[in-house]
Amino acid sequence: GENVEQHPSTLSVQEGDSAVIKCTYSDSASNYFPWYKQELGKRPQLIIDIRSNVGEKKDQRIAVTLNKTAKHFSLHITETQPEDSAVYFCAASIYLNTGFQKLVFGTGTRLLVSP
Amino acid sequence: NAGVTQTPKFQVLKTGQSMTLQCAQDMNHNSMYWYRQDPGMGLRLIYYSASEGTTDKGEVPNGYNVSRLNKREFSLRLESAAPSQTSVYFCASLKQGTTDTQYFGPGTRLTVL
User: Fold this and answer.
1) How confident is the model over A4-28, as pLDDT tens digits?
2) Which of A20, A44, B17, B37 has the largest CB neighbor count within 10 A?
3) What does each C-alpha distance from B62 to A73, B1, B57 come to in angstroms?
4) CA distance B112 to chain A (A)
């Protein structure tokens, strides 16, 4: 079946450092790659997304890059702050034979930013 | 605009009991989903509804049933709860076309003893 792998499972950085989370996907037809942030006890919330016709997208301290050939995409957080501490999920859209899209999620990365 | 709402927030069941988790969205979205979240396993799709009147199985449908009551509401039923169904359940809705963003509800934490 379709699969999205996410690494690392945990990531500890010092405040001000950069953090990078990487994902790979298996379905070459996937064309949409969102990233969700989930704080402890809360719901997942979209923080950034990218479509397959774009190689990079940036929103303030957060950026996402996509390598379609290698089927890799990554989340980059610069100048990390303690409030960035959360679990981050990547996802890839999967097309079903009915034309409907669904998301397949990675297993998550727990990011801890120490002051 | 409440977004996606879920009830209840917490529930404890005994093995073999049944219950229904309720989900509603007020964003006029066509598609709705039920996920379960377990430690270290991310979000796994249980069932989804591409549009009103249709439902389909996801990755882990065994032990669950769903009803898409109307465009707003999508319920998840556990007919005979098992300890393996202890999890956090999230409902989500998605508006296809201009965006594929899924909006999640606050979750239901279910414990089956």
Assistant:
1) 999 999 999 999 999 999 999 998 8
2) A44
3) 32, 33, 9
4) 19
